[in-house]
Amino acid sequence: MSALSTRLRHALGTLVLLGIIASAVPASAQQAAPPPPAQSSQSSPLIDPDALAVNEQTLLGDFSRVEGSILIPNTRERVLIQPAGRLWDYFHEVLLRPIALIVIFGMVALLAIAYLAMGRLRISAGRSGKRMQRFSAFERFSHWLTATSFIVLALTGLNITFGKVALRPLIGPDAFSTVSQYAKYIHNYVSFAFVAGLVLIAAMWMKQNIPRKMDITWLKEGGGLIGSKHPTAGRFNAGQKMIFWFVVGAGAAAAISGYLLIFPFYVTNIAGMQVAQVVHSLLAAAFVAVILAHIYIGTLGMEGAFEAMGTGSVDFNWAKQHHRAWVEEEVAKGHLPQPTLSATPAE
Ligand code: HEM
Fold it and tell me: Which of 221, 215, 220 lies closest to 237, judged by CA?
């Protein structure tokens, strides 16, 4: 009996509550709803807050963000219009492609001119036939980890910049959408391999890339590229040191700006992410250009250079021509027999 009366009291309570809500809703709905257009000008003193009353240009020009009011606690959802997004859109859709094209193809043109003007830099004494160890297996692993992940990042990243105009017309929108989706996943995940390679490279080679006095002479003498001199260098010459510091700096900046985009809103707001995207994309173009120069010197531009990273060893005459101070240091450390420093006949 008491259970029945309790249930009756609950049912009655619920009915009363529903009644209150039902009578309140139309009243609040009337308050929120705009007055009917035909009567608004005559019977209501309210200003119509639509495009007739508000000049859009003034609105967008005067405020960096247009926010509404919402009841859910997520404040980010309040942003209705963010005019700075148009500026970013202009950068991404209009400015970025020509800038990136000029930077990348400018470098390709420079390298082509260098090749035509100077040809391949030969081992002037010819090959000695004797080899000396230049890079350990672990050093080569770290280098190739960074290099292969860089190439994957560059290709999948450049698809974001150029794919819409270069690839979509060729393969159609459906295939392009699938390719881009996978390319984006690959870009995100391969970034971790790139960062791992970068950390290894930085840790292994930082000390040997600190500038020395002889680097200034090397630079003054054009690194042996200009004129017939072969300026001496340690294990890394000034040109390689510049590439090293660029890779470490630009790699770190690419990683930071990239992770700000992969993990949105953890550290920055939308404006911060726009800056990160601009930094990331411009840096990427410069990075590709610099690495193209690095690849050129390591392959086409200089005889005997690729072997260092390919097999780990170099021809002895190559080492003496390009890194004489390093050979001397290796002899001093007892890593090479003393007579190897004397002239080595070509075979
Ligand atoms: C190191 C870690 C890196 C991370 C975490 C990373 C992450 C990202 C992210 C999240 C985007 C935006 C993708 C989107 O719009 O949906 C992006 C774009 C891009 N990334 Fe990376 N990236 C990294 C390294 C690199 C490197 C080394 C390159 C080298 C060339 C590169 C080239 C690009 C390019 C060209 C874009 C497209 C820019 C655009 O047009 O908007 N990224 N990256």
Answer: 215
pLDDT tens sequence across 57-116: 766 666 666 666 777 777 777 777 788 888 999 999 999 999 999 999 999 999 999 999
Residues 6+ apart with CB under 8 A from 112: none
Q: How far apart are CA 124 and CA 108, in angstroms?
A: 26
Q: What pLDDT does 305 receive?
A: 96
For atom 43 of ligand 1, the residue with the nearest CA is: 258
Distance 184 CA to ligand 1 centre (A): 9
- Protein residues whose CB sits closer than 6 Å to any atom of ligand 1: 92, 96, 150, 153-154, 157-158, 160-161, 184, 187, 191, 194-195, 254-255, 258-259, 261-262, 277, 280-281, 284, 287-288
- In sequence order, the β-bridge partners of residue 315 are 131
* Beta bridge partners of residue 302, listed in sequence order: 121
Residue 283 and residue 309 in contact, taking contact as beta carbons nearer than 8 Å? no
CA of residue 202 relative to chain centroid, distance: 18
Nearest CA to ligand 1 atom 33: 157
CB neighbours of 176 closer than 8 A, spacing ≥ 6?
A: 163, 164, 167, 168
pLDDT at position 42: 43
Backbone angles phi, psi at 315, to 5 degrees: -70, 145
pLDDT (average), residues 284-290: 98
Candidates 250, 252, 256, 235; CA nearest to 308 is 235
For the chain, list the domains and their CATH numbers.
137-339 (1.20.950.20)
Number of residues in the chain: 347
Contacts 24+ apart (CB under 8 A), 35-43: none
